[in-house]
Amino acid sequence: MQRLEAVTRKAGDIALAYFHPDQRTSAEIRYKNGGSPVTDADLAVDRFLFEEMAALFPQAGWLSEETPDNANRLSRAALIVVDPIDGTTAFVRGDARWAVSIALVEDGRPVAGVIHAPALDQTFTALAGRGAFLNGVAISVSSRSALPGARIVSPRGFASFFEQSSLGFEIAPRAPSLALRLADVATGSNDLAIAAPDARDWDIAAADVILTEAGGALSELEGGSLTYNRKSSRRDMLVAAPKGLLEQSVALARAAMKGRP
């Protein structure tokens, strides 16, 4: 775990060289099909992590937002899942809420994860069965046992549904990085987070093990633990919550999708 964290921190340093708080990045920016940005910083971090992870886990497959997918990974028992910069749009405009996200998946489930947000001086880590930590201090999800009054991160376009609910939700600010939104549930800063459909495995794999080790869970609308290293990396609507609130939270997300209070 220490070696994985050290590599992730070095990757963060690479990205920081291009990051300027409250100013536009110095990295060259391109746009993918669909309009999302990718910068020289994303690509530099991706190259660095590919080389470092190949040395640390030579038998593992590779899945990254910035590398063309290779179906050979499907035959591997282990998989490295990487988002070189989760929250690239924030990174580009000088918003500190972005992170390097790395997970090790074994037999379909993440067993180690690091989310490193260097501009925030935050590093979340987790190892299966060993707990979750923020900057070396143990973290845990909210102790809330019922939805009324919960502090919730709404998916884009759904805020009015939760604001109009009779349950009296507190709507929390929505961080640009999905990994950080999920990590904030792991710390108990927010009670639950719901993410709109179309997240990808690289957005969530590290956060999944961190959330799980903090006493929470991450689920799609059908419930149950997520499985990784599938042919498709795309996800349906996601719900992150303390385990005791998960069933209620998933039902809430289903209602939001149907547009019913």
Number of strand elements: 14
Q: Helix/strand-derived class?
A: alpha+beta
| Radius of gyration computed on alpha carbons | 17 Å
Instruction: Catalogue the unreliable spans.
Output: none
Give the overall shape, derived from the CA principal axes: globular
What's the CATH C level of the largest domain?
Answer: Alpha Beta
Number of helices: 7
What is the CATH homology-level superfamily of the largest domain?
Answer: Fructose-1,6-Bisphosphatase, subunit A, domain 1
Provide a descriptive summary of the structure in words:
The chain has 261 residues and is α+β, with helices and mostly antiparallel strands. It folds into two domains: 2-138, Fructose-1,6-Bisphosphatase, subunit A, domain 1 (Fructose-1,6-Bisphosphatase, Chain A, domain 1), CATH 3.30.540.10; 151-258, D-Maltodextrin-Binding Protein, domain 2 (3-Layer(aba) Sandwich), CATH 3.40.190.80. The chain is built from seven helices and 14 strands. The strands form three sheets. Strands 3-4-5-6-7-8-9 form a seven-stranded mixed beta sheet, with helices on both faces. The protein is globular and about 50 Å long. 45% of the residues are buried.
Explain the layout of strands and helices:
Blueprint: H1 2-16, E1 29-31, E2 37-39, H2 40-56, E3 61-64, E4 78-86, H3 88-93, E5 99-106, E6 109-117, E7 122-127, E8 132-134, E9 137-138, E10 151-153, H4 159-163, E11 170-171, H5 178-186, E12 192-195, H6 201-213, E13 216-220, E14 238-242, H7 246-258
Parallel strand pairs: 3-4, 10-11, 10-12
Antiparallel strand pairs: 1-2, 4-5, 5-6, 6-7, 7-8, 8-9, 12-14, 13-14
Helix pairs in contact: 1-2, 5-6
